[in-house]
Hints:
- The chain is mostly helical and 60 residues long.
- The chain is built from 1 helix and no strands.
- The longest helix is centred in the middle third of the chain and has 46 residues, at 11-56.
- The relative contact order is 0.06.
- The mean pLDDT is 92.
Amino acid sequence: MPYIPRTVPADFQIVFGFLAIALPILAAWFFFDWMERYAERMEREIAKELEELEETGEVY
Length: 60
């Protein structure tokens, strides 16, 4: 038998529940977006550094 709540949630409970779900999802989205941009930037920096090492002949 399914659970049937005896009271209707108050407005602040609805808002708090929404924020409790939405804010972690939003934070995770921003974090992973930032990590992707950071990885792309580091990849470009490493490629540039490797190219400089190849030009100077320090890469064997």
